[in-house]
Amino acid sequence: MSGKNVSTRSRSSWNRRSDALDMTGQIGRDRTDAERHKRVHKRTPGAVRVCSSCAAVSAEKRWVTDPETIARIRNAAGGAIEPTLCPGCARVRSGRVDGWLRLEGQAVREHEDEIRSLVFHILEDSRRDDPVHRVVSWHTEGTRMEIETTSQWLAETIGKAIQRDLGGDLDIRFIPDEEFVRVYWKERS
Fold first, then answer.
1. DSSP helix, strand, coil percent of the chain (3-state; round to 5)
2. CB 100 within 8 A of CB 183
3. Region for residue 114 given its phi and psi (left: phi exceeds 0; alpha: psi -120 to 50; beta: otherwise)
4. What angle do CA 173, 178, 182 make, to 5 degrees?
5. What residue ranges in the chain does DSSP mark as E strands?
6. How distant, in Å, are the alpha carbons of 40, 111, 119 from that of 4?
7. Cβ contact 84:51 at 8 Å
8. 52-101, pLDDT tens digit by residue?
9. Distance CA 160, CA 62 (A)
10. pTM for the whole structure
């Protein structure tokens, strides 16, 4: 082929078109994008949402916990602040668990402080990116530790980090038709 543009569609047709499907799956040829999406945007335009539990801030559908970003968002809001719960606090309050992690072996007892430190480090890093990542409960009994998380990703990440640091066998089981993961780590004998 020569260096010509092969596409037959005009550049503007790649943008959102007025004949796109609306929220009910019907074609909305006679409505504008703003009219179709009116039901989605129920919040006050320009309002900044602040979690009343953990102080995470949301603007433009993104929750953040980074202090510099929070200060920038609050300054840009000009005082319109809407108190609410962030997705992470809402999941903890409702008891929603999407990840379950079990650690077994003598290494759990011997390296408990290191494991806790590793988990808290992962938790802080992931919470900075998305406040939905939380630990709901944490139980240690002898050579067994169980951790429940609000996200699949967090349980999987913790399991992989522990395997990388302590060795052992890791088994990750995603439950079909549910948003749930079981992660098993066992020390090699």
1. 35, 25, 40
2. yes
3. alpha
4. 25
5. 48-51, 57-59, 62-64, 81-84, 99-104, 135-141, 144-149, 169-175, 180-186
6. 41, 63, 54
7. yes
8. 888 888 877 788 887 887 788 777 766 677 888 988 899 999 989 999 99
9. 27
10. 0.69
